[in-house]
Amino acid sequence: MSYQNLSETNEKVALVRLASHIALWGNLSLASLKIGTGLLASSLAVLGDGIDSSTDVIIALMSLLVAGIIARPADRKHPWGHGRAETIATTILSFILFFAGAQLMLRAGERLFSLEDTRVPPPLVLVVTLCSILGKLLLAWSQMYLGKRANSAMLKANGKNMLGDVVISSGVLIGLALSILFHLPILDPLVAIGVGLWVIRAAISIFWEVNTELMDGNSDPELYQALFEAVRSVPGTVNPHRARMRRIAGLWDIDLDIEVDPELSVREAHHLASLVEQAIKERVDGVYDIMVHVEPEGEAESHPTEQYGLREGDEK
């Protein structure tokens, strides 16, 4: 790994750790407040909101663990480094959210059909829920801001999850207010079911996004266009093909074949490949590694079975 990549990795680790500590202590405070209030007031909606915040505590702890793993240098067993730990953690995050949402819906359904504990919650729950909304807004902003600076899919996903929590808490606030105002205790489990559905939706959305990275894919055609433009900018290089880009912890691992004049010396062909690498780095942010394979001009057509990856025009 180059010095620049090492510096970027160290900066990312520091930002992930900072974001994780903010999320950990912020969500721990909110979760304790809401779970305690939900138990005392016998409000399943507030309790469910607190459980959702407690999953964010688990996520923050997981983020701290991941920060330590991705900081490790590449080794014999992991020649591409340890960046995939972030992808795995984001996937685990989606499953945690899905499980929490499903459990909340089951509990709310039981209360709804058994009609147990049909007391209207006290006004205190409104104050606690409003505090939760304000706290979650600050936490979501911190995760999105630091996630963008670190180019971390995990932090961005966590920020999106917290924005979802704001919507959840807002729904809880409205439901509780109506329940108290019109003396309708049945609204409490109904709101809890809505909270559970929202959590499950967020879990599926996060998993769907991270699935592209898990499958070594890339859904942004503009990145491939930048790749081919880089090749065109270097005189003497033609027919970029077998282009592949995969994301590893916010950085790009790139493979690309180019063709050059077959009469060039190895040194001259290598120089052109180096110019292509530099041109790519100028157009694509966050490059972890580039592998440019040089072929004699016209060679690609004689090996049709090797044409995996993209060639110019396939990205459109």
Report what the structure shows:
The protein has 316 residues and is mainly alpha-helical. It has 2 domains: 3-214, Alpha-lytic protease prodomain-like, CATH 1.20.1510; 221-306, Cation efflux protein, cytoplasmic domain (Alpha-Beta Plaits). It is built from 8 helices and 3 strands. Helix 7 crosses helix 8. The protein is elongated and about 85 Å long. The protein starts with a helix and ends in a 20-residue tail after the last strand. The model has no long low-confidence stretch (mean pLDDT 80).
Q: What is the top-level CATH class of the largest domain?
A: Mainly Alpha
**Class per helix and strand makeup:** mainly alpha
N-to-C terminal Cα separation, in Å?
32 Å
Mind describing the biggest β-sheet? Answer: 3 strands, mixed
The tally of beta strands, per DSSP, is 3
Low-pLDDT runs of 5+ residues are none
- CATH architecture name of the largest domain: Up-down Bundle
- Biggest sheet strand line-up: 1-2-3
Oligomer: single chain
